[in-house]
Amino acid sequence: MSTETSALVSTAPVGARPDTTAAVARLIRFLETGSVPDGLFAPDVFSDLSLPQWRLQAATAEEIVAIRAASHPFPGQVRVERVEQTEHGFTIEFEERWHHERQQWYCREMIRADLVGDSIVELSIYCTGDWDEAKQREHAEAVRLLRP
Amino acid sequence: MTYSSTVRDLLDRAGAARAAGRGGTAARLYDEAAAHCRGEDDLEGWTESVLGAASVYVFGSEPGKLPAQLYDVLARTTDDTARARLAAALARCWAYAGQPARGVRFADEAVERAQRIGTPELVADCLDAALAAHWGPDELDVRRSLATRLDDVAAHVLDPDTRLQAHLWGLQVACEALDLQAMHRQMRALELLGEESARALFFAASRRMMLDLLRGRTDTSAQLTSMAAVAAEQASLADAWMVLKAMEAYAAVQSGDTGTCAAGAAACEAFALAEGATAVCSEAAFLWVCSGRLDRARSLVHTFHGRVLDELPRDVNWLLTLQCVLEAALAVADVEVVEAAARLLTPYSGRAVFNAGAVMFHGVTDDTLSRAAALLGDPDQADRLRARALATYERLGARWWRDRLASSRPPDDVSGERRRVHLHPAPGDLWLVGPDQAAVPLRALRGFGYLRELVRRPGQPVGALDLVGAGTGVAVQPGLGEVLDRRALAAYRQRLRDLDDELTEAEGWSDAGRLQAVRTERDALLSELGRATGLGGRARTTGSSEERARVAVKKAISAAIDRVASIDAPLARHLRSGIHTGLTCSYQPDPADSVDWVLD
């Protein structure tokens, strides 16, 4: 996470809205390990994954895990850039890095999660798609990011 | 806590480095520990590692990736206590890095969670973070309220560090409110704490010196600086050296030790450049002024031109930076910076200015604003602010500050009096320049000679060529021709008039396309005419003896007046406004600003 963006917002503020810190922490754990912490997903959780040129949906936790495992073999590392509490849950912006087929992969994602209690009932996921090392190099040579 | 042996070892070594005052080493070890913990999926160890790194972060320096690390851990943390500690550290980190707005929400979360838990030490730590996040010039009332809450909480704890934080904030707020009774009360509490811990003793000694200097006492400075240095060594305080440097430099300011003051200025300037610390840069400028090095002060003041002051973050250093910059700009008569700083400070007239944590007193804004008003030609405002500043200094017993302001006479006070000013050669290729009793020998400059010839003949035009020749019989060469011949010049001017008419017409019709085209052509013509004409639109010749003399005299006089400004800003102002250069030059002094020149 860049120092520029890291504190533009706080993680789930306490008080007026329900505390989403547990769900945020569990989701990060799932993203990094692939194992689903108890209570993270409601049994009928719906997810809608938008990729650069593709779209997938799932209606159960098992299907979400399957989609995830197919694209991001575990374990990986998540770097959280920003968490915003919303009316029904939270949004989280992050980057992921993982090792697969002798390469370091990278992607950035934004997830909107709706909660009931501490459990996620709906996920909307926007992903840049997976960048292999060649793509990362190409990008680094072509673009100088203001906030890396 | 059950960390792996690697992490335990790293944390132990980091803790030892911190205890020994080696903050940089500690930070690297904490960082390494954080990476290990992350790899080992050890959130507890990761938390301790990043909190450790935050504990050695130096106030005012670039925070690097520390906020990002703290945030990354915070996002994974659900435990109230850990979240409160992390959020407090993050809030402090942003505040210390000069970006308090980013820290406010973390501070709010920290305080709320800490109060939910109810542990006094944790609540105090989080209130400290909240105070740091609300340290801007517009939040004094918030600070008062938070400091009162912190004082209440700290009253119930034994931990000396917690009580120290509470008293330091109490002192800070008392200072900002110029509540002398509360300042004495908090100082006494700090000194009592100093009997319990070396850390508290460092703060007690350094703040006692601040209070003594505020009240014009310099006889205690050496002893208090020494006491603070010993305590800092014992307590291994990471950024104590900065405070110790400030203590030495500001004591030197009041005792007139220009050498020590200059050393402090140089140290501040070096740190400011290395860290990009704007507030420290402004302090360096002020210290250069106090050490008599107006040339160094001027070069730093120059860095505050443009929109730099407007874009300063409204954080803990905002008032301090503006106050110091204004002090330095006044000393070197940099009107542009004086105007900008005074404009920004005016809504804060009547405020006291202290370095962060009440390290040092920097006067009241009424003081600098009164002098700025005098310089900028508002004598009524200057008088009003000056009287108020003097009354404040009198009430506080701030003798040095009172005497300094009282002796700085605004231009109006000078009017009617004639002062003797030297401007003549002295033995050893030097010139003696400046007011009687305080004239300074300066290395000879050609411009001093031109100035002397002009002030010798007030009101009389003197040819630039005559100044350059100075009676040596310079051969007059014809010019190589005007830059534009007169027919072309007349045609340009006619076209300019036509364009002005077209501009008026296009504006009336709101014809944006035509407006742009006309403006572009007009700007190009004006630029060309400006290059080809001098003052009053007269054709400028190039290559003639007269023209070369004009340029040479103008440059030489400008350099000479700049040199005068480094030793006597009012005299430089007088010369700038009275000397006119061109093909003929003259000295036309303001009758209200009379000078008796000593020219031989």
Task: Write the topology of this structure.
The complex is a heterodimer of chains A (148) and B (600).
Chain A: H1 3-6, H2 21-33, E1 41-51, E2 54-58, H3 61-71, E3 76-85, E4 89-100, E5 103-116, E6 119-127, H4 133-142
Parallel strand pairs in A: 1-6
Antiparallel strand pairs in A: 1-2, 3-4, 4-5, 5-6
Chain B: H1 5-19, H2 23-39, H3 43-55, H4 66-76, H5 80-96, H6 100-117, H7 120-133, H8 140-154, H9 160-176, H10 180-194, H11 198-214, H12 221-235, H13 240-255, H14 258-275, H15 278-290, H16 294-302, H17 318-331, H18 335-345, E1 352-354, E2 361-364, H19 365-375, H20 379-396, H21 399-407, H22 411-414, E3 419-426, E4 430-435, E5 440-443, H23 446-456, E6 462-463, H24 464-469, H25 486-508, H26 512-532, H27 545-565, H28 569-578, E7 579-580, E8 584-587, E9 595-598
Parallel strand pairs in B: 3-9
Antiparallel strand pairs in B: 1-2, 3-4, 4-5, 6-8, 7-8
What does the model show?
The complex is a heterodimer of chains A (148) and B (600). With 148 residues, chain A is of the alpha+beta class. Chain A has helices at 3-6, 21-33, 61-71, 133-142; strands at residues 41-51, 54-58, 76-85, 89-100, 103-116, 119-127. Chain A has a six-stranded mixed β-sheet with strand order 2-1-6-5-4-3, with helices on one face. By secondary structure, chain B is α+β, with helices and mostly antiparallel strands. Chain B is built from 28 helices and nine strands. The longest helix of chain B is centred in the C-terminal third of the chain and has 23 residues, at 486-508. Mean pLDDT of chain B is 86; it is low at 411-416 and 471-476. The A-B interface holds A 1-3, 6-11, 13-15, 21-22, 24-25, 28-29, 33, 77, 79-80, 83, 92 and B 38, 41, 63-68, 71-72, 74-78, 83, 87, 90, 94, 99, 102-103, 105-106, 108-109, 112-113, 116.
The helical percent of chain B reads: 55-70%
What is the global morphology of chain B? globular
Count of alpha and pi helical runs of chain B: 28
> What is Rg of chain B?
30 Å
> Which parts of chain A are unreliable, with pLDDT below 50 for 5 consecutive residues or more?
1-15
The assembly state of the depicted protein chains is heterodimer
Tell me the span between the first and last alpha carbons of chain B.
84 Å
Uncertain spans of chain B, ≥5 residues at pLDDT below 50?
411-416, 471-476
Order of helices and strands of chain A: HHEEHEEEEH
Strand order of the largest sheet of chain B: 5-4-3-9
What is the CA-based Rg of chain A, rounded? 16 Å
Strands ordered across the widest β-sheet of chain A: 2-1-6-5-4-3
